[in-house]
Amino acid sequence: MSAYRALNDGSLPEFLGSLPQVKELLGGEPAGWTVEEVGDGNLNLVFIVRSPKTAVVVKQALPYVRLVGDSWPLPLSRSYYEHMALVEQAKHAPKLVPKVYHFDRNLALIVMEYLSPHIIMRKGLIRGIEYPLFASHIAEFMAQTLFNTSPLATTASDHKRRIWAFADNIELCKITEDLVFTDPYRIAKLNHWTSPDLDEIAAQFRRDEPLKAAVQRRKLQFMTSAEALIHGDLHTGSIMLTPTDTRVIDPEFAFVGPMGFDVGAVIGNLLLAFYSQDGHEARVYARSPYRHWILMQVEQVWRLFSKRFVELWDKSKSGDAYMPELFQDPDGALAFTTEKQRFMRNLFVDTISFAGIKMIRRILGLAHTEDLESIAKPAMRAKCETKALTLARRLVIDAERLTGISDVTSAARAIHASP
Amino acid sequence: MSAYRALNDGSLPEFLGSLPQVKELLGGEPAGWTVEEVGDGNLNLVFIVRSPKTAVVVKQALPYVRLVGDSWPLPLSRSYYEHMALVEQAKHAPKLVPKVYHFDRNLALIVMEYLSPHIIMRKGLIRGIEYPLFASHIAEFMAQTLFNTSPLATTASDHKRRIWAFADNIELCKITEDLVFTDPYRIAKLNHWTSPDLDEIAAQFRRDEPLKAAVQRRKLQFMTSAEALIHGDLHTGSIMLTPTDTRVIDPEFAFVGPMGFDVGAVIGNLLLAFYSQDGHEARVYARSPYRHWILMQVEQVWRLFSKRFVELWDKSKSGDAYMPELFQDPDGALAFTTEKQRFMRNLFVDTISFAGIKMIRRILGLAHTEDLESIAKPAMRAKCETKALTLARRLVIDAERLTGISDVTSAARAIHASP
């Protein structure tokens, strides 16, 4: 077991050369491998190590938040949780996560599949690329991982062990608790926004009492609802894809939490992409078809996810919750179907509310998204952001009054069309 | 550290004599102490050890379910969780739990305060004894322990550690999952009821699809809602009292679960006591004042609990959920007050639904209560039980439609008055 040290271009090939499986995969000798540090996330080192034959990705946690620096320490154990989550997700959605070749707990390092020609979805959305299989892939990923790590699919004992196994991923959860659920609603040093354009709306949000109450209700849910092993950070920067292949990466925020937090992350980030299109189109209306495509994805993600989730539930006989033997006759089957619809309705409300909360934090909090940040002109960016905030607030406040996903896309469209 | 062995009248004094603190407390020599085994619960050995000077209670877990026998093994670790829960509860409600003098993890044994002249509340209810301070005491116990072990009062980190610390109390939770939430709704070997009188209603409940769906929804909540450290078995057999003193014992089912499960246990068991009075009165109507007193306690328990819970919340500044700094101005204070009412409303619905579920399992499941079992004439017992089941079903099905606790007592009274 080696002690922790941050690896670099120089030390990494030698280390990988000491791992027989990785050495064989790359082929040849470490001296013939090249290393490129490509981490553009907020937390970690990410290297691509290339040999003449192939390539691998090496992700290593740093003992602090990369975005902020070593003034903000962060435990290396997040790499352990990321690895555990990748292994668990691979059981349920093997084609939708990167392969893991090696994990070193002391180095907080994962060697995994190099995905090519995949790009980070967020960058694809900025470029206006359509991904025809994305919605069905991400729906499959979420349905499989969320259903199968809940007591709808497993015993209560397994579920308690799962809760236990991830319960100490405390600091990563705290990042979410602080940056997503709290800081955007108070004066906080790390907050920033397009200023002065958004100064007034940021102040409004800080004194928007019904909004703050609703967000705090969701924060409590985030801290107490142990529904399933969630990815915990499932934005479009955690998705790499091609037109035919989709992979979910970076589950270091994983813990047993509310399912809607993952589904809401996908939908909220699609909606941010939708509102950012005005800032990326060559001329007004040029991206109208793409805007339409994004909203179709919002609808498809929810529809395909909920359909698939219920399909898995219909087929499952292994969960300690809602044991099928209790609902065997025709009346029972009907009651069970109604109950599943009720469950999905609650999950929809959770999803939409979390989606709105995730949008707000990306505009008024610490960590923003490239979709909006890459809009050069502040006035244009502020206009996009204001519309996104308007929808986001409505999603949080009105989640229970929205009858379905098309209410969300209608509202998104109407707010976009407003002056 | 000693290996596990079940202690008995012979071996117990010697063991206690080896514990300096206990020896000093009892005074004199072990040869002068008497041992009486008094365990009437379902799971454990309970001894009273008396010296000329005083007495202590020794509770030792057996490696199986006492009620069923060694065919049903049960981990000794429940004693560890009981001890941890007693320690935690004593922090928040020190006057409402027995003092702990010694804990031996290997022997799964707790030496604790001998409560005298306290009796088990259930026996007091059967005798028709009024306890004027019970409602305020139990309300205080529940408000203090539930509020203070939730993220309303603590950091998210502390809450995750609490979840982690109790997450492996799996087998005790499974008893609840099986015996409370599942078996009464299916043919199960251990079920029994007043037969043949209740055969038809038991069969009706097994095919009552809306009821089963509602109960399974609560079972899922029991498995996934990590709101606070709950007692987990807070029936009137877990309460010992006098007219002036109340103590909550036996928290071996403790884990971080839904708050309403504890409050519902108290209310459900009071309602069972209410319906059992017909079987205990010397002549018809003799216990009418006592029936009225019990229903007043149902109302008081909820009212005092919810009032106290909100008081604690109003004063607290330490919780990661709903940080007070977010709601400081007058509008914020108003929104926060509204949000607390909303929280309490949800907790009320949970409570009433769990109360109904706990009542049903005591009549159609494995473990019954002395309130009803001690009614000698089956026809009378069946009549009491049928009324209790009628109310219980309504509480589960209609919890969301009940506007307050007086709806519960009105329904209880109306059903009691029916032929």
Question: Could you characterize what this model shows?
Answer:
The structure is a homodimer of 419-residue chains. With 419 residues, chain A is of the alpha+beta class. Chain A has helices spanning 11-17, 20-26, 77-92, 121-127, 134-148, 156-166, 170-179, 199-206, 209-224, 259-276, 288-315, 330-364, 370-373, 378-398, 405-417; strands spanning 34-37, 44-50, 55-61, 64-65, 69-73, 100-104, 109-113, 119-120, 228-230, 239-241, 246-248, 255-257. The first copy, chain A, has 2 domains: 12-113, Phosphorylase Kinase, domain 1, CATH 3.30.200; 119-417, Aminoglycoside 3'-phosphotransferase, Chain: A, domain 2, CATH 3.90.1200. Chain A is 52% helix and 12% strand. In chain A, the strands form 4 sheets. A 5-stranded antiparallel beta sheet of chain A has the order 1-2-3-7-6, sandwiched between helices. In chain A, β10 and β11 (246-248) form a beta hairpin. In chain A, α10 packs across α12 (330-364) and α11 (288-315) runs antiparallel to α15. The longest helix of chain A is centred in the last third of the chain and has 35 residues, at 330-364.
